[in-house]
């Protein structure tokens, strides 16, 4: 009587197969991590851009409203020429002239000396950034309206103008009227404020996830409503 040995075989992975699978898994995880990091970097950059533009637009809106009121119940346009120029603007107005609330005295109505009646806008450079600041001489002092500002240029005209403002520029070009400078800004009837916002590049050029520098120019055309406008 003869007997036969039955050989048992077990299914599984060899060491080489396991190593190959691990290498492939690691390669896929590395690629996925890189894609995720780049997506998060792009998302962060877009958030920074949105925040910078929103802050700047809000600051320009505040400036435009207050500058337009310059000269209220004053002789002239309300611009203090000695403290105004291409990168700074000081405006004055008597805002409570017709405020007959009992808390407002005749002295207050007849002079400038309350909050919001003597305002200066300027750029403040700190380390590697610039702030667009507002100084209220009789009010809250200096406050920051927007940060991450690259430049602010203020232009004064005695008439309404047209101009060129490319998004990548840092100032307007080719105005249709001659700009007022020096003491002549006291004759301005129309102001153009141009604010440039620039975000620095992120990463190394040519490397994965690189974000190029980004800049945008925001402009506001402001008519000084308390000046003589019938000559436009």
pLDDT averaged residue by residue: 82
Unreliable residue stretches = none
Q: So what's the overall shape?
A: elongated
Radius of gyration: 31 Å
Features:
232 residues; alpha+beta; 4-stranded antiparallel β-sheet; 3-stranded antiparallel β-sheet; 2 helices; 7 strands; 25% helix; 25% strand
Give the SSE map.
Elements (H helix, E strand, L loop, with lengths): L14 H54 L19 E5 L13 H4 L8 E9 L2 E8 L4 E6 L2 E9 L32 E10 L14 E10 L9
Antiparallel strand pairs: 1-2, 2-3, 3-4, 5-6, 6-7
Quick rundown:
This protein has helices at residues 15-68, 106-109; strands at residues 88-92, 118-126, 129-136, 141-146, 149-157, 190-199, 214-223. The protein is of the alpha+beta class and 232 residues long.
Would you mind describing this structure in some detail?
25% of the residues lie in helices and 25% in strands. It is α+β, with helices and mostly antiparallel strands. A hairpin with a 4-residue loop joins strand 3 and strand 4 (141-146). The chain is elongated, with a radius of gyration of 31 Å. It starts with 14 loop residues before the first helix and ends in a 9-residue tail after the last strand. The model has no long low-confidence stretch (mean pLDDT 82).
